[in-house]
Amino acid sequence: MFRGGGNHAGEGERRARHARMSPFGRRLARWLPAALIVIGVLFDLASPPSYTAAPFLVAAPLIVAPLFSLRATTGMSLAAIVAQVLLSTFHGPEYRQSVTESSTVIVVVLLALGFNRVMGVSDARLASVRDVAEAAQRALLPPPPTRLAGLTIAARYVGARAGARIGGDLYAVQDTPHGVRVIVGDVRGKGLEAVEAAVVVIGAFREAADQEATLEAVAERLEQALRREAGRRAGLEEQEGFVTAVLAEIPAGNQATLRLLNRGHPPPLLLTSDGGLRELPPSVAALPLGLGDLATRPDRSDETSFPAGALLLLYTDGVTEARDQEGQFYHPCARLRGSRFSGPDDLLDAVLKDVALHTAGGPADDMALLAVRRPPEA
How much of the chain, in percent, has pLDDT values that exceed 90? Predict the structure, then answer.
């Protein structure tokens, strides 16, 4: 019955809040206020004079105020006042409670209108913050090219909290003289510190990916960048920061080969065109980036085949740590094995939809996903 209206700055936030409700919740919020007024009028007419419809009438604008526009709240408020006036007129001047009930309805209606305006200002500020965060994310994590050196690529970033569109999960793709190189990573911690570390990692990766001949050398440059950044900061939290990451390389002129270097990150998945799936764990476990001083072994990349038509899926631990209502983790291998996908976008959309189904809602942690598809042979 009610549609979100109005053109104030926070209207987008109202619509977003409304969209996050379940379908049943949206229908209930749309019809319940009007139903309460109708029920209140019928109740008042059918009950003895000592009973009043005021609780039903005042509840209607209070329900509308946080979910709908000022116009909708005003309309429902007027409907409540009109209903009260008509009931008072019906009962006649001898009905002593009419003044008290009418005053109650008017006072609560004014409170609902004031609450709606306060919510509007708050939503407008939130919308402004979200716009800034979205612009920052586009600068930090620009969408990768859909096609690069013959490969098809797609990426997704999903924040754990509504309104938080930027965090410490990261990805980057770059065409280099050595082939297409990719990084997907997850910064320890949250907030601006995590974002700053992600900026450092992505900046160092873009420079090193072009200049260094091997993934091992790229990883060392990332270590150095994080070490320099930690040296500029004071405090235990910054000194103990680290970044889990996977570096991938599809060599130029030999796209049937895939090289991976894993620094404490969830292993990528390789999905073949016939529905097969392989997990690609590192042959030798390694510490995350930023903890290189504690490592006793040098980095070593692994090499595997990248069949024609296959999809490489890289993701952060927000995917594997997504839990259902019984506390069971999401297992992408079990959920994706046997499935076929038309391309990277189809794969990522399916994974995000499946994670949402598994958790029965939003993720508990940020998620970054990136998929690369090698074209089928002609």
Answer: 42
